[in-house]
Amino acid sequence: MAKLIVYYAHPGHKYSHANKAMAAEARDVDGITFVDLYAEYPRFEINIDREQQRLLDHDVILFQFPMFWYSTPSLIKEWQDLVLEHGFAYGVGGDKLAGKCMILAVTAAGQNDAYTRQGYQQHPIRTFLTPLEQTAKLCHMDFSAPYVLYGSLRAPQEGLLEPHVEGYRKLLEAIRDDRYDLQAAVHGEVIACNELPILEGA
Amino acid sequence: MGEILLLAFLFLIAGVVAVPIASRLGLGSVLGYLIAGIAISPILKQLDVDVVSIQHFAEFGVVMMLFLVGLELEPRLLWSMRNKLLGLGGLQVGVTAALVMGIAMALGQPWSVAMAVGMVFALSSTAIVLQTLNEKGLMKSDGGQSSFSVLLFQDIAVIPMLAFIPLLALSELASVANSAADDGHGTGMSLVDGLSAWQQFGVTIVAISAVIVGGSYLTRPVFRFIATAKLRELFTAVALMMVVGIALLMTLVGLSPALGTFLAGVVLANSEYRHELESDIDPFKGLLLGLFFITVGAAINFDLLFANFGQIIALTSGLILIKSSVLLALAYAFKITNANRWLFSLGLAQAGEFGFVLLAFTVANGVIPAPLADKLLLVVALSMLLTPALFILYDKVIAPRYAGAQAREADEIDEDGSIIIAGVGRFGGVINRILLSAGYKTVVLDHHSEHLERLRAFDIKVFFGDATRPDLLHAAGIDNARMLIIAIDDREQAIEMVRYVVEHYPHIYIVARAFDRHHVYELWAAGCRDIIREHFDGSVRAARSALEALGHHPYDAERQTRGYVENDKVAMRELAGLYDPDIPVHENTAYVERTKAILASHEDAMRQSMAGFGSRIERGWLPPSLDDQAAAIADNAAKDGSSTQ
Questions:
Q1: Is residue A92 domain-resident?
Q2: Domain ranges of chain B
């Protein structure tokens, strides 16, 4: 059993549809740790020791958040700045996270085709996530392909949210039960709810 | 009665006229007083006033000054000065006395007279030098500290000198001396007459111990007892009683009163009553010293001076030259650098008020013949009169050359600028702890003895005193402070304090605690721009806690309350501008109208969205509506289309 922690961050939780539904689902999964960062640190006073201990206690670190201006909500940045200390996460003696795995579960308002060279975002979504990817690398962690929901604002109307939330539960349970094919996921580009690399019968 | 009033008026008006003029001309207050003395000396002569006996009375100002100096000097600091005190002070007195003695003998004086003259001239003027150094803010500089060490040593050295001088008595003068032995220099009363040397020593030790033990253990209960009467003048009376009592005790056992009060000051330097004592004694010291300087000016015997003009001037300049040379050599030896070296050498180059005392004593004991003593008296007075000129020389010629070094000194004083916290109950206490933990120096004032005792038990340094008194604020160092935090319990006095400090010390940043909304407006009107309502943060937090418990997401609760605080702050600023302390709120139409408008807009906002107060908090993270989205996509598609065509 892999120990999984889900860090959820959405400052406008009550306006959210996709993330709120996903968070409710994740909170409901047994045997994993769920943290609502904005609920725990509404005034940004992050407890570094507690967070580092949480990282030590888990094998897979998952961040669930909406893309804001091609990046994370600001509290995740604050969390990174404070928790991933030199000597802990990177640098001299900074090997405490080595071998762990980082996974992102992001929602983007833009459609699938917007995140292409020709689309209005002009880059694939992975390009905007490279800071996190490199963060994982610097901390000697694996970086798994992100679980992405495009067009998140219209997803509920178009019937796309429900399968995404269902897939999210499957993803979390599979990681927990060591049935998630991390090898395949590490080499993938992005992962959608209908193509989860789950190993059956493991 | 009438005569006393006339004299008092004469001295006061001379000082009041001369000192501001001298200060404006950059000559310093001391020269102002001296000139005032010279100016009124003909009138005094006409009235047949005994200037010398007034001078002896005024010398008590020196005693008070040393008490105040002691208060500023913690025992630890005094201990760290011991090398300078003994080395620098001892060498200055010894070398100067020896040189003066040699020259006097070369001029044909017998060795005993020469030695007495050496001792008289070795001393400098504590009154002039300390007063001037304080006035110029040079007391904390290296030169100031060295000067102080030497002066303190001299004050101590007077005692063995007084013991030694009678041994030098000339036989032919001895008979005259016997008849004039008690001439009223405090030697009239004594507890130690007729005791053997070791008994005298024992009495001395007992007296000093009494000062130290009494200062350490009696002050607190006495002041606590006095505090129950709640009369301010009683504190002044107690402070005066202490200083006078110690001086009396020291005189009775044949010690220097200045030394005794200085010791008492050092003992009380760590006491919570330090600033209270300081502000009570300070005006007396100032007036007495002023009187002293006036009498020095008035006592100059111009007839004698003009009769022996060349000789007196030569002696005076010779004395200043010798003293400053010795001091300069010592400054090199003790590595006093730059401008400080010159400050030290020129500042202490005069003879001092103890010279007057010693001269009278030598005459009384038949050591120096009276005609010679009269001339020497002139030399002492003239050298004191010239001291302000030497300080001006230092200021205008020497200090500018070391401008770089001076700038560094000024920075040090800046750093010294402390934060004054008035009132240290629950509110001020937290502020103090946080500022201290951030490494700031705070001066905490409170007039509740129960607060003091509670905090003292936790080793928190607090001073007793009513912080609303300007003189106490002054004693607490408001001139050099960078910030004042007002956390006193009395709302009217807090307003008064803001008004006073804003007017007199506009550079000081004030943080004031307000009790309620109207107190905020009043403090604002008084000129404070950083006002904290004491219960506001607490009630906001309680509201936030309630929202969280009602199931609001903690971050929403945070945003909601933050929005309230923001709106409230804006409304408060606006209303503070309309508030007029002279008009009752309900009669202030502008204020009432604006309040109504603000309340109405709050209600509107609440009716529109259940969320809270206006749009301010609703702006975060609202996704665009579906219509906006569709429009944006259509827009982008159109652009893409045009660019690919």
A1: yes
A2: 1-47, 50-175+299-409, 551-640
Tokens of B245: 């009592």
Ordered mean pLDDT values, 10 residues apiece, chain A (202 residues): 95 91 96 96 94 97 96 96 95 94 95 91 94 96 95 91 95 94 86 88 56
The top-level CATH class assigned to B50-175+299-409 is mainly alpha
Chain B residue with minimum CA distance to A117: B640
Mean pLDDT of chain B: 81
- Cβ pair A39:B555 closer than 8 A: yes
Of B558, B621, B636, the CB nearest to A120: B636
pLDDT of residue B413: 32
**Searching chain B, which residue's CA lies closest to the CA of residue A15?**
B622
pLDDT tens-place string over residues B621-638: 666 666 776 776 676 666
Count of domains for chain A: 1
pLDDT winner (highest mean) among A34-48, B9-23, B225-239 = A34-48
Give yes or no for B549 touching A (CB within 8 A): no
pLDDT number for residue B532? 93
Cα A16 to Cα A24, A152, B140, distances in angstroms:
12, 10, 64
Ordered DSSP codes for A139-182:
TT-EEPPPEEESSTTTTTTTT-HHHHHHHHHHHHHHHHTT-B-H
Q: Which of A10, A38, A120 sits opposite B640 (nearest CB)?
A: A120
Q: How far is A143 from chain B (nearest CA, A)?
A: 28
ipTM confidence: 0.85
Which amino acid, residue B576?
A
Nearest chain A alpha carbon to B562: A43
Q: What is the CATH number of the domain that holds A163?
A: 3.40.50.360
Given its phi and psi angles, is residue B356 left (phi above 0), alpha (psi -120 to 50 degrees) or beta? alpha
- Chain A residue numbers with beta carbons less than 8 Å from the beta carbon of B623 are 12, 15, 109, 153
Q: Do A118 and B633 touch (CB under 8 A)?
A: no
Tokens standing for B137? Answer: 């803010």
DSSP three-state, residue B333: helix
Contacts of B640 in chain A (CB under 8 A): 118, 120
For chain A, say whether B618 makes contact (Cβ under 8 Å). no
